[in-house]
Amino acid sequence: MPYKFPLATTTWDHEEIDAINRVVSSGNLTMGENVKEYEHAFAQYVGSKYCVMVNSGSSANLLMVYSLLFTHNKDFVIRPGDEVIVPAVSWPTTYYPISQCGLKMKFVDIDLKTLNYDLDQLELAVTDKTRIIFAVNLLGNPNNFLRINEIIGDRPILILEDNCESLGAVYENKKTGNWGLMGSYSSYFSHHISTMEGGMITTNDEELYHILLCLRAHGWTRNLPDYNLVCGHKKSSSFDESFRFVLPGFNVRPLEICGAIGLCQIKKLPHLIEQRRKNASFFKDRMKDHPVIQIQDEIGDSSWFGFSLVIRPGLGIKRSDLLNRLKDAEIECRPIVAGNFARKEVAKYLEHSVFSDLPNADYMDAMGLFIGNQHYPIPEVLVKVSDFYKDIS
Q1: Considering the chain, what is the average pLDDT of its residues?
Q2: What is the maximal distance between C-alpha atoms in the chain?
């Protein structure tokens, strides 16, 4: 059914349509100069040295993990069987690349207020076998990276960031996606900006940048600099280099149209996030001390992908009642990301372990959902939700 208040709406106007028409008219449809320009603009915005655009945030996660199998940097290299700690709540393609690369996942519980890692449990879960902590910034909310780095200490543990829902979020004056060795982003329709489909990987490491460029397109050398940290000097003959394959790569290239749209969208991004934060400020004020529903506690400066609604424990109120109220108000909603992924049927195909119990992830899975935020004022939606259960106080 169509909703009066949908989960997401378009951020496009005539500029994106004009950009599409320019690319189509040019006849240069495959990955080219628009993608390169967008990568540069994105890098400037997020404060990263290198950016690699791919066809989705899911592909960004895949290449981000896979690239570590091929680095020559002994501080970064991973091997099949290495342990990766993950939060129990995220999107499936946070987890799948870990399994696809032969790594072992360990699920850790979330904090019911921030919806990111339960940091006390994370600290207990880290062992000498841990090689990567995968930090997922959920629904726009940064992780507490100072605490995560304290937990790591001087151990050889890498941080990777799934920042697909949190473009523009800031923690300690640094944009999220930059706290780890690499960060992933999504520009799918429902995200902060949209390039139809699209994703990005950021890093400050030159070798990983070159590896990512190679893996993105078949594992060939064509898109690498003449001298690079994958194969050294390229051959002088462009013919000899045209089909030279050096890594077992993929084809996850973006379209040139997506790069052109991205150039339009990245210019609008500061304003889009500013309005999302204004909506959040209004909503946080109305939801303060709400008798039934708790919303996400903000860490740093969230970019407020959406608004989580979790029924407070011990009230005897079912999520189905909240769902019915939202339906009656014509407000679209979804489960919070994929819920507790350790409980999904697909987990049996993924080599994993669960550290201790996951009571918070289980509770959120059963009693939580989220509604959309928008890049324009939505007071009517936020007032309706904040007035739910007004008689219980």
Answers
A1: 97
A2: 77
- What residue ranges do the domains of the chain occupy? 14-263, 267-386
Sequential DSSP letters for 206-237: HHHHHHHHHHHBTTBSTTS-SEETTTEEPPS-
Q: Residues, the chain, total?
A: 393
Q: Residue 392: pLDDT band by 50, 70, 90 thresholds?
A: confident
CB distance 254 to 63 below 8 Å = no
Say yes or no to pLDDT of 393 above 70: no
What is the CATH code of the structural domain delimited by 267-386?
Answer: 3.90.1150.10
Which residue reads 């069987």 in tokens? 81
Q: Give Cα 213 to chain centroid, integer Å.
A: 20
pLDDT at 2 over 90: no
Tell me, which fold does domain 14-263 have in CATH? Aspartate Aminotransferase; domain 2 (3.40.640)
DSSP structure string for 60-89: HHHHHHHGGGT---TTT---TT-EEEEESB
Q: Verify whether residue 191 is a known catalytic residue.
A: yes
13 in helix, strand or coil?
Answer: coil
> pTM surpassing 0.90?
yes
The residue annotated as part of the active site, out of 14, 40, 72, 191, is 191
